[in-house]
Amino acid sequence: MGISIAAARSAARLPALWRAGLVTFAVLASLAIASVEARAVEIQTVETPGGLTAWLVEDHTVPIVAVNFSFAGGSAQDPDGKEGLANLMAATLDEGAGELDSQAYRQRLEELAVKISFDAGRDAFYGSLRTLTPNVDDAFDLLRIAVNDPRFDADAVERMQRQIISGLRREQKDPDAIASRVMAETAFPDHPYGRPSSGTEESVSALTPADLKALHGRLVARGDLTISVVGAIGAERLAALLDKTFADLPEQAELAPVADVTPKTGIRKDVAFDVPQTSIRLALPGLKRDDPDFIPAFVMNHILGGGSFSSWLYEEVREKRGLAYSVGSYLVPYDHSGAFMAATGTRSDRAPDTIAIIAAQMQRMAEVGPSADELAKAKAFLTGSYALRFDTSDKIASQLLGIQMEKLGLDYIDKRNALIEAVTLDDIRRVAKRLLADADPIVVTVGAGAS
Amino acid sequence: MPQTASVLPRVFLAAALALTIGATGVAASSPGPAGGITLEAADAAAFADIKIGGDIESFRLDNGLEVVVIPDRRAPVVTHMVWYKVGAADEPAGMSGVAHFLEHLMFKGTTNNPDGAFSKRVAAIGGQENAFTSNDYTAYFQRVAKEHLGEMMALEADRMENLILTDAVVAPERDVVLEERRMRVENDPGAMLGETLDAVLYVNHPYGTPVIGWPSEISALSKDNAIAFYDRFYTPNNAILIVAGDVEAGEVRRLAEETYGKVAQRADPGERNRPSAQRVPGALEVDLADPRVNQPNLRKAWLVPSYATDTADDAPALDILAEILGGGSTSRLYRSLVIDQGIASSAGGWYQSSTLDDSRFMVYAVPSDGTTLEDLGEATRAVIDTLIAEGVSAAELERAKTGLLSTALYAQDSQSSLARMFGVALTTGSTIEEVRDWPRVISAVTAEDVRKAAETYLALLPVTAYLRAPEDAGPAATANQ
User: Which of A323, A379, B131, B162 has a Cα-to-Cα distance from B407 of 20 to 30 A?
Assistant: First the structure.
């Protein structure tokens, strides 16, 4: 593509099906450091007359207001046979509401330069609002009708179904998407986490406006509503707007229970697909966010295959051998499970070697572990980079939402770096053994020459 | 839609817009980029007076390095970028991919900071870094806590003149780039069609060659090729330093003189004169059938002026035309093809405004079941013909202006976005003043300007590209398999 910019380094390829979990995780990853430098992220807790709670960072420097919010229950709430329902609801809530049909609603958004969007995660349903200050009242009103009074008109729903199905067809021929889908269904058979969160062509085709109304009635409630707001607005005005927008929702959602589940191990799946680069995924049981070992595991993963360009996987797979452009590993915490994942892609004939190298690095982490120097560098990066997660309204709003959803507390931003600093070599060794010793991961490959 | 993954994913549109804004901007006075700007109303009229970049300052060092400082004091961090006025379109013939390959190799080390010491240092201070290459520019950046700015400048200045490469690091990195190409292009028939479309659209011009390079030419690139390119183009008089964040211009000047100021001019790259892209007569079609396709699509592309080559004030009108014709779900193409006729599942278009040479205007559509690509192509053409014949409404014009200008205003929230905006503009032939003045220029566009731009450029024959599965292919496409 013309604008095609090729980055020298790639943050690895995150399988779409796992991304939902990562939304939360990214937040965790971030929480922390404001200690040293601290842009004063002063969080106000706003308690509205209507009984809602929101976190607010008031900042009038730019004339923008950013709102992020979530309801408990995401695509894991899709009923059996109706896979993709929450995703379809995310696509249709802003396709007409109240008195405004789809075109009228979309035109109103454009006239006001207001952005409203929704996204279905595995365990939560997310929404966001962005507006310029002169239009704050109108923006919240458009959000209010989308959340409370979506139309789900048959023609708009059918149009979104077509669009989603078109995307699903493309994913059927995309090796990364195939690998993610196969990994999810292999790791979590007979569990909502194993199902395709966007559904299948068959399941999405069968969805109806009545299905959407039913899910909306079950899921969109004020009980498990989490809200964060950043920008040019004061607490009092915000409280009134939040009440208008959310206070009339039903008190409690009616969520189906989701069972706790441990990902399977020891399964190999090779999907034959004629592409020049084989997509590779490995998965093991991981940790939930509330596990006491989560922070040590997070630091351990950073050294093994995390974000910076100095991880073991980056060094061994990419720098030394040129096997891949993108390689990394991740902790994927869900509400009811946790997984550890690694992902890369390489020329088909080099896939076996690449898998062996990743497995060897996992084993090395479990048996040898990092040096004291490597741990010190990892901590320096993780604590030092925390402030970079707070330099735009969007990022702050997203951070605050995640901290609230994980119930980490109002002071988490101040505490997070100390939690990282407290991790010892023994902690790393312990958690590496727990997660990676004698690992027998699920391995999925999608590419040519699969046997 | 998370689902719009293919022809032009929304992410891509966003990128295109951001670059568009590259010729654009917003804001006012002090602490933030928008420095306490107060909006009375958020409509196109209110946006016209906005100056992008707030208290932006710029100056030039004695060695020719241009410096741009964009204050944003909301967080104690800085974005430090060096942009070289060289990209893939400046490569010697037969050496496609060398600009991007060099970008990768720039992380390998220098005489003073060998073995990737720069990256290690960035990681040690909790910084983020990366680089990117386009047809017209190559840029390197770090995002760090503000107290580390001086050290980043020293390391980047060192990298401007002291790169060392060995075959031991060059060989695996060439494999990395080939894997990058497999991932981005060869695993994705839609991306391969994009390459072919560009190759046909840009007759006699290097934009027809992919930025990442052709596989056979990447494979042949050597250490010496990369160093020759480096020695010819990486010199302070061919670079722009952009610092956005919690900084004072005076302090940046002092640090720049201590670091970049010590780098002597290494070369004189001269004017960037490339051969002119030619419009050739005849209907041009690209028809790619691939067994990996189960969702066909179609694209049409026209050669149009960019902001840099525009001589008739057409570029702002093309920006607005792209919004009205193809920007989102209220656009002409979406309403007609997706909503009213139901013959497409998605449709849209965009204008690539920020390039040094003539650029492209694209539209795309994804057919519904039962619609052929050929029929969809004719329906697309009809939408465009109607716009040319009947013009655009006042409401459409206003919405398009509001959308474009508000995007510029939203970008004020991100120091990285602002830095990129100016970097793109300054390496593709625009000036700081043109960026700052863009809201006024957009605000002045009339409905007739938009209609006339459509007539001038889109009435011509486009290059049409079809992506389909083999069973749907016409004889020409299957013969190529």
Answer: B131
Which pLDDT band holds residue B37 (cuts at 50, 70, 90)? Answer: low
A56 Cα to chain B: minimum distance (Å):
16
- Minimum CA–CA partner of A119 in chain B: B2
Residue A63 is nearest to which of B38, B188, B368, comparing CB atoms? B38
Cα(B422)–Cα(B22) distance, integer angstroms:
6
Number of domains in chain A: 2
Q: With a cut of 50, which residues of chain A have pLDDT below it?
A: 1-39, 451
Is B156 an annotated catalytic residue? no
Q: What is the pLDDT of residues A256-296, one digit of tens each?
A: 999 999 999 999 999 999 999 999 999 999 999 999 999 99
To the nearest whole angstrom, how far is the Cα of A345 from the nearest Cα of chain B?
7
CB half-sphere exposure, B164, CA atoms < 13 A? 11
Q: Distance from B445 to chain A by nearest Cα, in Å?
A: 17
Task: Indicate whether A255 belongs to any domain.
Answer: no
Same domain, A241 and A319: no
On whether both A278 and A135 belong to a single domain, the answer is: no
- Spell out the SS3 assignment of A294-308: HHHHHHHHHHHHCCC
In angstroms, the CA A405 to CA B262 distance is 51
* Tokens of residue B313, six digits: 């004030």
CATH number of the domain within which A274 lies: 3.30.830.10
Q: Is the residue at A238 inside a domain?
A: yes
pLDDT (0 to 100) of residue B475: 47
The pair phi, psi for residue B116, each rounded to 5°, is 65, 25
Which stretches does DSSP call E strand in A276-426?
Answer: 277-285, 327-333, 338-347
For residue A120, the enclosing domain spans 5-246
CA gap B215, A157 in Å, rounded: 44
Find the CB nearest A5 among B134, B330, B359: B134
Q: Is A21 helix (H, G, I), strand (E, B) or coil?
A: helix
pTM of the prediction? 0.90
Examine the pLDDT at B156 and tell me if it is beyond 80: yes
Please check whether residue A39 lies inside any domain of the structure.
yes
Residues A356 and A433 in one domain: yes
Q: What is the pLDDT of residue B473?
A: 57
| Residues paired with B466 in a beta bridge | B287, B298
In a domain, A290, yes or no: yes
